[in-house]
């Protein structure tokens, strides 16, 4: 029978005692959401699963040091984020502009603002659909399909300058709706577009 923990203190207490049911509860509750989160950063399902597994192993090994943890959920997300940054900076797999956006993502999740993040993603999707037709097409070819400005210009039979103008226009419109959070939300949205929900 699956054990249910009604509050953080009870969960931390049982974890500290070495109760494996406490660890099982955490894994049942957070394993898939954490994998989805790390996958949204890395776009690599194997890496995401490895990172999350390592975090749970580390939590179990250091279960006697959980007194300072206010929120286990926040702690797990923070650990996954740090592990992702450490691994990918070491392997030099993050481009400079991506590092800036990933760092900004930390601000969105550090206070457990998952609901806020979801609302921002939904708002972004809505506002993209509301862009002027040519502007929307140009923007999606760039951000969703990953085409270069030259490829877009050839595909749409326009000049590169026109493409640049349409993308700039799209950013201006979207920034007016989302403010400074647009870059990390865009990064998360389009870095996750190939996600297969069955990989975890």
UniProtKB/TrEMBL annotation:
Q: Where is the RNA polymerase sigma-70 region domain?
A: 26-93
Q: Which UniProt keywords apply?
A: Sigma factor, Transcription, Transcription regulation
Please give the InterPro entries that the UniProt record associates with this protein: RNA_pol_sigma-70-like (IPR039425), RNA_pol_sigma-70_dom (IPR014284), RNA_pol_sigma70_r2 (IPR007627), RNA_pol_sigma70_r4_t2 (IPR013249), RNA_pol_sigma_r2 (IPR013325), RNA_pol_sigma_r3/r4-like (IPR013324), WH-like_DNA-bd_sf (IPR036388)
Q: Which Pfam families match?
A: Sigma70_r2, Sigma70_r4_2
- MF terms per GO, please? DNA binding; sigma factor activity
BP-aspect Gene Ontology terms:
DNA-templated transcription initiation
Segments forming domain RNA polymerase sigma factor 70 region 4 type = 123-172
Organism of this sequence: Cellulophaga fucicola
* Gene3D superfamilies recorded: 1.10.1740.10, Winged helix-like DNA-binding domain superfamily/Winged helix DNA-binding domain
The entry assigns this protein to a family as follows: Belongs to the sigma-70 factor family. ECF subfamily.
Could you tell me the superkingdom of the organism this chain comes from? Answer: Bacteria
Q: By what name is this protein known?
A: RNA polymerase sigma-70 factor, ECF subfamily
């Amino acid at each position: 029978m699956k054990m249910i923990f009604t509050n953080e203190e009870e969960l931390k207490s049982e974890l500290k005692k070495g109760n494996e049911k406490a660890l099982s509860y955490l894994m049942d509750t957070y394993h898939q959401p954490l994998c989805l989160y790390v996958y949204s950063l890395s776009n690599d399902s194997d890496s995401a699963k490895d990172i999350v597994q390592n975090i749970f192993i580390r939590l179990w090994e250091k279960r006697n040091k959980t007194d300072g943890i206010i929120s286990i959920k926040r702690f797990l997300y923070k650990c996954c984020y740090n592990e992702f940054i450490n691994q990918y900076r070491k392997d030099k797999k993050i481009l400079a502009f991506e590092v800036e956006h990933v760092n900004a993502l930390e601000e969105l999740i550090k206070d457990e603002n998952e609901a806020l993040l979801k609302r921002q993603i939904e708002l972004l999707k809505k506002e993209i659909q509301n862009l002027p037709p040519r502007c929307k097409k140009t923007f999606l070819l760039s951000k969703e399909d990953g085409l270069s400005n030259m490829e877009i210009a050839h595909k749409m039979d326009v000049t590169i300058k026109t493409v640049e103008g349409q993308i700039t226009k799209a950013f201006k419109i979207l920034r007016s709706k989302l403010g400074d959070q647009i870059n990390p939300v865009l990064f998360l949205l389009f870095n996750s577009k190939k996600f297969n929900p069955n990989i975890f």
